[in-house]
Write a structure and sequence with these properties.
With about 375 residues, this protein is of the alpha+beta class. It contains seven helices and 14 strands. The chain folds into two domains: about 1-30; about 35-355, 4-Layer Sandwich (Deoxyribonuclease I, Chain A), CATH 3.60.10.10. Helices cover about 25% and strands about 25% of the residues. β2 (about 60-75), α2 and β3 form a beta-alpha-beta unit. The longest helix is centred in the N-terminal third of the chain and has 28 residues, at about 1-30.
Length: about 375
């Protein structure tokens, strides 16, 4: 009798040991949110690596900037598996383009959560590789106030209230002289569903255009997903709108409303947040939309055709001192124009920035490299 009791008593200890072993095994293969982050900030600029200044008819001066936006689907296991080979092909293509002198001049990445994905930002040997929010970054600007029902209905089974496991997955890479940079995560309570597991947010870089009288602001953000977040559409869209409010604060910090800018973000659907905020209410903000063939056209935020013609979009803003206009738009690696390497195709936009040749050039605070 005593012996039988002792045998029965061993089972809880065995069960606990098995569960602890299983937990340790799962923990060992979970993604390391710090491992993917790469960063490079050039302390000088190479004049030979800058876009060439041309003189337009009428005497204005201009440069062309090739901007590549790519959501590279760099998601870790167990969300995705077997992505490294395709991510390496993306990196190789960018490296080959850069080696051939074909750009891009600015690379903007979304969803670069894994080491294989973040290496894409390094592949082109850009002078500066600027990451967005890190895993441990906290928001130091005010967060948007969520409705009471939104805050109280968070569901840990959908990834909410479990903390952050990944960084923001954002990158801006360029050879242009970087004068200032910012990055900021969204508020801890303004996300929805599985998106809450990543420290999503926004980033901005202020760069100099050699010879131009004003600086250019580059803005990048990745707001809450809709269906992939795993929650109701209403909840996902509420988070998207709240994060737009938070984006507006960093746009205010870089004086985006009064300055020349190229912006990339959730311009792949006309979402709740795209109907509000600074971009929607700024009459000077335009989308780089598809025109005839590869030609681009400037479209308003409410232009329905712009939203349906391209999977991802970029926006821009001009000033009197620095005029920004899109010349060409191409969708690449969509299964028709190159193999599909990610769930989002690449979006390539050529912008022309022009200014009065008699204008005084803006001083570049970053010295030229020896």
């Amino acid at each position: 009798m005593d012996r039988a009791d002792r045998r029965i008593g061993r089972w809880p200890a065995v069960a606990v040991a098995v569960l602890l072993g299983l937990a340790a095994a799962i923990w060992a293969v979970l993604p390391d949110g710090h491992a993917a982050r790469v960063e490079r900030v050039a302390g000088c600029h190479d004049p030979a690596a800058q876009p060439k200044v041309e003189t337009l008819a009428g005497g204005r001066q201009a440069v062309r900037l090739r901007v590549l936006l790519w959501n590279v689907e760099g998601l870790p296991w167990p969300i995705r598996s077997g992505r490294d080979a395709k991510l390496a092909r993306i990196a190789q293509w960018i490296a080959q383009r850069r080696a051939a002198g074909l750009g891009p001049d600015i690379l903007i990445l979304h969803k670069a959560f894994t080491p294989a994905a973040s290496r894409i930002a390094l592949a082109g040997d850009f002078h500066s590789v600027l990451p967005g929010p890190a895993l441990d970054d906290a928001r130091h600007l005010p967060a948007a106030v969520a409705p009471a029902a939104f805050a109280t209905s968070a569901d840990w089974r959908k990834g909410e209230r479990l903390g952050k496991w990944l960084d923001g997955g954002l990158y801006i890479a360029t050879d242009l002289p970087v004068l200032a940079r910012f990055h900021l995560p969204f508020g801890a309570a303004t996300c929805a569903g599985y998106d809450c597991l990543a420290n999503k947010g926004s980033q901005a870089a202020i760069v100099a255009i050699p010879g131009a009288p004003d600086v250019l602001r580059i803005f990048n953000t990745h707001r809450n997903a809709r269906e992939p977040s795993g929650v109701s559409i209403a909840r996902a869209e509420t988070a998207h709108a709240l994060q737009t409010e938070e984006n507006d604060l960093i746009l205010e910090a870089i004086r985006a409303e009064g300055g020349a800018m190229i912006a990339a973000g959730d311009f792949n659907n006309y979402r709740a947040g795209d109907r509000m905020g600074r971009f929607a209410n700024d009459p000077g903000f335009r989308l780089a939309a598809k025109g005839s063939g590869l030609a681009a056209r400037a479209a308003s935020m409410t232009d329905a055709k712009a939203w349906t013609d391209a999977y991802d979009l970029m926006g821009f803003r001009s000033t009197d001192a620095l005029h920004v206009e899109p010349l060409a738009v191409a969708t690449l690696f969509d299964g028709l124009h190159g193999p599909r390497l990610a769930d989002h195709p690449a979006q390539y936009v050529i912008f022309r920035l022009s200014w009065n040749a008699r204008s005084e050039p803006h001083r570049i605070a970053v010295p030229a490299c020896p």
